[in-house]
């Protein structure tokens, strides 16, 4: 874990998909740099386990866990109210949770539905950024675009080939010759959540080992 230099001290972050993978990594990273975090997930037990781990490392009241099905608008409203009250405010949203998807399809990156959903997120983020800027709202919206990351989302693929062979197959598609680690993405989240990125909005950060350059 990165040394605590307080890069997001005083920030309050709400993270979906916080029970595992990239969401859990983002929660740990932001907490390590001074933020309070709310981990929301349909798997409440998993989110609570991550929150307990963070609180043990950084003190009680640093992390909170909430049950959330991101496909249900009414749950969003209720859980955001609870999280905002628990943290004493809300300054960062990490909209990380995935909806559906087959491990094999996601791993090969060739699913039309998967690619279309990612394009929609990319365009939505830009539209939010422009709207908030036009309305003079102090809200920035950016997106992070990873490639293959060593998280449970690859489980379907690794179950078919075994972890070592599966990772080798994926790594051959990446110019840097390896798949990513959760903290590769968490570091990008940390940057966007911090004031270091205060002049960035409507941008996309590609953390993909060079795939987008091909």
- Mean of residue pLDDT? 90
**Structural classification:** alpha/beta
For the record, what is the CATH homologous superfamily label of the largest domain? NAD(P)-binding Rossmann-like Domain
The CATH architecture of the largest domain can be named as 3-Layer(aba) Sandwich
Distance between the termini: 31 Å
Question: Strand content of the residues, in percent?
Answer: 5-15%
Describe this structure in words.
Residues 99-110 have low confidence and may be disordered. The chain is globular, with a radius of gyration of 17 Å. The chain has 214 residues and is of the alpha/beta class. It is 46% helix and 13% strand. The chain has two domains: 8-98, 3-Layer(aba) Sandwich (Rossmann fold), CATH 3.40.50.720; 99-213, NAD(P)-binding Rossmann-like Domain (Rossmann fold, 3-Layer(aba) Sandwich). Helix 1 (21-32) links the parallel strand 1 and strand 2. It contains eight helices and six strands, in the order E-H-E-H-E-H-E-H-H-E-H-H-H-E. The strands form two sheets. It has a four-stranded parallel sheet with strand order 3-2-1-4, with helices on both faces. It has a two-stranded parallel ribbon with strand order 5-6. Helix 1 (21-32) packs parallel to helix 2, helix 1 packs across helix 8 and helix 6 packs across helix 7.
Keywords:
single chain, 214 residues, alpha/beta, Rossmann fold, 2 domains, four-stranded parallel β-sheet, two-stranded parallel ribbon, 8 helices, 13% strand
Short description:
With 214 residues, the protein is an alpha/beta fold. Helices cover 46% and strands 13% of the residues.
């Amino acid at each position: 874990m990165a040394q605590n230099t307080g890069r997001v001290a005083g920030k309050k972050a709400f993270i979906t998909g916080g029970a595992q993978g990239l969401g859990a990594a983002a929660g740990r990273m932001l907490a390590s740099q001074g933020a309070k975090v709310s981990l929301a997930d349909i798997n409440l037990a998993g989110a609570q386990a991550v929150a307990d781990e963070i609180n043990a490392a950084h003190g009680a009241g640093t992390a909170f866990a909430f049950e959330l099905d991101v496909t249900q608008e009414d749950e969003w409203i209720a859980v955001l109210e609870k999280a905002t009250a628990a943290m004493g405010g809300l300054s960062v949203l990490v909209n990380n949770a995935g909806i559906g998807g087959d491990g094999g399809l996601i791993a090969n990156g060739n699913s039309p539905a998967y690619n279309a959903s990612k394009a929609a997120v990319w365009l939505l983020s830009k539209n939010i950024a422009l709207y908030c800027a036009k309305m003079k709202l102090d809200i920035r919206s950016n997106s992070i675009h990873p490639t293959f990351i060593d998280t449970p989302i690859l489980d379907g693929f690794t179950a078919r080939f075994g972890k070592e062979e599966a990772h080798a197959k994926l790594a051959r598609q990446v110019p840097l010759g390896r798949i990513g680690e959760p903290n590769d993405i968490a570091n990008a989240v940390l940057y966007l959540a911090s004031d270091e990125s205060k002049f960035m909005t409507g941008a996309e950060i590609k953390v993909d080992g060079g795939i987008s350059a091909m």
